[in-house]
DNA sequence: GACAAAGTTTAGCATAGGCTAACTTATATG
DNA sequence: CATATAAGTTAGCCTATGCTAAACTTTGTC
């Protein structure tokens, strides 16, 4: 391989970014669920499977299965055929996610994008924003 | 259910955001791969399985498997035991991703975050930024 | 040209997140 | 208060993305 040169020490550093993205992804769904459950509880007093399914745009059975996972990792508590509750841990994650989500959305609006786009993009972006970037966004909001 | 009120027409609209995020995710990996393959080809003349695996931080076998999928959807071309090439379609996607990636990264830097954070966060964010938001970021860069 | 090292592929496994269809439980109303 | 409808659950399937270990090519070197 004549054209092969060094890999550079950057390879490992580079891969860290992708590893973080992959880690984000597995947390992402959990965050979306607890955030939505928190909203449902606040808005209407309780969170039901069906509401979560409808809002997420997935089948009921999918929600049930995912809730099982969230129970095993201690974010959610639920009796069969009953409404969904959050554990202390779950509330913590939900509040965190909501704060982050709101900030990103406000930031996008301040940047000049439409409400619609801010809502949609913030949903995707919120999970990939570090504390440092969040802080920079907050600073921008104060300035502008 | 005494406390159940209307679901609101927002449910379907809301779910659209999550559907987009899910769709983004399945495209995301493809974009990461073609972007990285394009970089490897430009930087060192060819893209090898091992390099992709190392940079992404995954096992070799994982790359092989994913490349199969990318071949079936027409982004990548490869002979067994040979280097990886991009199809015209693949190059289009790679260039698109690279443009988007670079813009997001530059934007984050302009916003005041560190190089390190800009690099990492842009990797996660680039896949979730709409054209409208990208344009707003570009505008911000011109102004600042 | 033989052979060791490096790179690639295959096989087989696990987890996560989707789905539909069939079934069970809760509840709201006649 | 019986029962139809709505809600939740289970079972079984699929795809995507990871992994390790073992097998197979390619290639560089002696």
Explain the layout of strands and helices.
The structure is a homodimer of 144-residue chains.
Chain A: H1 10-44, H2 49-56, H3 60-72, E1 76-78, E2 84-86, H4 88-111, H5 115-125, H6 131-143
Antiparallel strand pairs in A: 1-2
Helix pairs in contact in A: 1-4, 2-3, 4-5, 4-6
The structure holds a DNA duplex (30 and 30 nucleotides).
Overview of the structural elements:
Two copies of one chain form a homodimer. Chain A is 72% helix and 4% strand. By secondary structure, chain A is mainly alpha-helical. The first copy, chain A, has a two-stranded antiparallel ribbon with strand order 1-2. The radius of gyration of chain A is 19 Å and the shape is globular. Chains A and B meet through helix 1, helix 2, helix 5 and helix 6 of A and helix 1, helix 2, helix 5 and helix 6 of B. Chain A binds a DNA duplex (30 and 30 nucleotides) through helix 1 and helix 3.
What's the short version?
Chain A has 144 residues and is mainly alpha-helical. Chain A has six helices and two strands. Chain A has a two-stranded antiparallel sheet with strand order 1-2.
């Amino acid at each position: 391989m004549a054209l092969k040169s060094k890999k550079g020490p950057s390879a490992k550093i580079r891969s860290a970014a992708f590893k973080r993205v992959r880690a984000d992804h597995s947390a992402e769904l959990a965050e979306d669920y607890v955030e939505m459950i928190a909203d449902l509880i606040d808005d209407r007093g309780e969170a039901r499977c069906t509401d979560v399914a409808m809002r997420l745009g997935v089948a009921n059975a999918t929600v049930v299965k995912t809730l099982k996972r969230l129970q095993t990792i201690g974010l959610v508590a639920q009796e069969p055929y009953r409404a969904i509750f959050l554990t202390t841990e779950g509330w913590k994650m939900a509040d965190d996610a909501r704060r982050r989500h709101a900030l990103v959305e406000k930031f996008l609006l301040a940047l000049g994008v439409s409400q619609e786009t801010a809502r949609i993009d913030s949903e995707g972006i919120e999970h990939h924003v570090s504390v440092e970037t969040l802080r920079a966004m907050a600073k921008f909001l104060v300035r502008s």
